[in-house]
Design goal:
The structure is a single chain. The chain is mainly beta. Helices cover 10% and strands 53% of the residues. It contains 2 helices and 11 strands, in the order E-E-E-H-E-E-E-E-H-E-E-E-E. A hairpin with a 2-residue loop joins strand 10 and strand 11 (127-132).
């Protein structure tokens, strides 16, 4: 497996900034660096705690922005307002909002198979029932 980088445009208030993201299937939220969110004029809408891979707990402000991934469209998404030491990360929540999944073996984004509803039969000895998932 390898690293997957994706180019995008973060937009807010009539402005847009081109950003190179590391697509991170272990990150829930998308992170934008301080220089990006300050240029766009994003304002904190709340704060959350995050646990890093080494177990360190950090706090970061949360906002929202319009994020465009060329070829995949644009959607509003929550974003973490990164500090000077943070990197631009494309998180799973944003990928899901765009209807995408990360294929780490092929190192690419691809459309998600979206399952709305399924009905299947559960059969045990002498008993059959319908189940909805």
């Amino acid at each position: 497996m390898g690293l997957v980088y994706v180019d995008g445009v973060v937009k807010h208030g009539g402005k847009g900034v081109r950003v190179g993201f590391l697509a991170d299937s272990g990150a829930t939220y998308t992170v934008v660096t301080k220089s990006v969110w300050e240029e766009l004029g994003l304002k904190p809408m709340g704060e959350a705690e995050f646990v890093l891979a080494d177990g360190t707990v950090i706090k970061r402000a949360i906002s929202e922005a319009l994020l465009e991934l060329p070829g995949y469209g644009e959607r509003h998404t929550p974003v973490v307002l990164g500090e000077s030491e943070d990197k631009n990360l494309l998180g799973v929540a944003t990928l899901e909002i765009l209807g995408l999944v990360l294929d780490p073996l092929k190192r690419e984004l691809k459309p998600a198979s979206v399952l709305m509803k399924t009905t299947h039969q559960i059969t045990t000895i002498g008993y059959t029932a319908s189940a909805k998932a």
